[in-house]
Amino acid sequence: MSAPLEPPLQRGPLRGLLQALRDTPALGWSFLYFFCLLSGYYVLRPVREAMASSSDLQEVFPPALIAWFGSQGVPLQDFVLQFLFTCVFLIMLVLQPVYGWLVSRQPRRVFMPVVYGFFIVTLLGFHLMFDSNVPGRGMAFFFWVTVFNLFAVAVFWSFMADVFSNAQARAYYGYIGAAGTLGAFLGPVITGALVQRVGIANLMLVSAGFLSICLLCIWRLRHWAILREREQQLVSGEQPMGGSVLDGLKLIVREPLLRWLALLVVFGVGVGTLLYNQQVSIVRVAYPDPEARTAFYSHLDLAVNTLTLLVQLTLTRWLLSRHGVAPALLIPALAIIVGFSVLAASPLPLLVAVVQVVTRASEFSLFKPARETLYTRVDRQWRYKAGAAIDTVVYRGADLGFTWVHKGLSLLGSNIVFAGGIVVASLMTLAAFGVLRQEKKLPRDR
Q1: How do residues 190-240 score in pLDDT, each as one tens digit?
Q2: Helix axes 395-410 and 414-439, enclosed angle (nearest 10)
Q3: Is the Cβ–Cβ distance between 24 and 172 less than 8 Å?
Q4: CB–CB of 193/2 below 8 Å?
Q5: pTM confidence score
Q6: How far from chain centre, in Å, is Cα 225?
Q7: Cβ atoms < 10 Å from Cβ of 278
Q8: What string of DSSP letters covers 53-64?
């Protein structure tokens, strides 16, 4: 049975959720999908953070690379994040056309299992690398997790826009986000409980298990995506989209809404990168042991996810349903400006952690669901091609640029880093207003 086009919005959060699950079976499978996806990712995220903040170069980089930098007289230890993010951006430039070819030439039933199947197979390879303590495993894993997070989550939200209408998205995306947050709770708990008992290598197998369940959810949800496309006479996702592998980037250049969304992501990534890189500098000194760093980041993730879940269950659905995307885009931007203003005045380590929690939680609970509801009102080319390009190439390009900006600002002290963050957060707010102006021109529902 398909869901009603206009879900009831008058009920409380719990009653509304139970009614939505009864009315819309696809919602339950979407919950399981996002829950398992983020569980699998958050099992791995603390490992990535531990690798990025490691003081042992042999753990992170291949010996040949360390020797090459040494022969050039460049202290690689001082440029770990800059090197990693530069390489990630280059990898994204290579992978984006590959992804563009896949979604252009293959139907949904093929390219979605291929994407997730690839990630599962490579996780098995990382299990062997960590089990054998292969030098340079940290760098390879950092690259992989960063690419996985962007592509797997981008594909998820694009698929949700195939399954749900705009009215359903505004009513349900907060709930779906909450399911993901519960998975994000479970991941760090698993990592914190197991990493010092079974080792990092076996966490790869745990994550691969979660991703296997995602494949089952994709198979089940195809039915409702096909049904919605037939009912609303939309272009079927069961047929290849066609077009060029670079259509996503071309759409961003051509369409005003996509340009503003790209700028919104650029400046949103900017504030996150400045904060993240400053935190890495603190953690590298405080936690020299990789297991201890992994445990610290798992605790930080738990704090982020606790706040995210509270907002998703109490505020996200109400804001999107009653007031549209405007408050959900502007509240995080204003919160970030306040947070960076506090840090510019007093950059204490504890305050850095607190602002990190608030920044990430507002992104996951408000900012991301608001952006994704817009894609339910546009063509599939926009969400699978342009949306994916924004969430991968544009995202990592911004990450790279602001990693180097942080390197320059950090030479002048933490206060200057956070003062720069205030400027970036202000630009993010302006971009949000640009998105809202263009959003008014979109059709009300699709």
Answers
A1: 888 888 788 888 999 999 999 999 999 999 898 888 887 777 666 555 565
A2: 150
A3: yes
A4: no
A5: 0.72
A6: 23
A7: 21
A8: T-S-HHHHS-HH
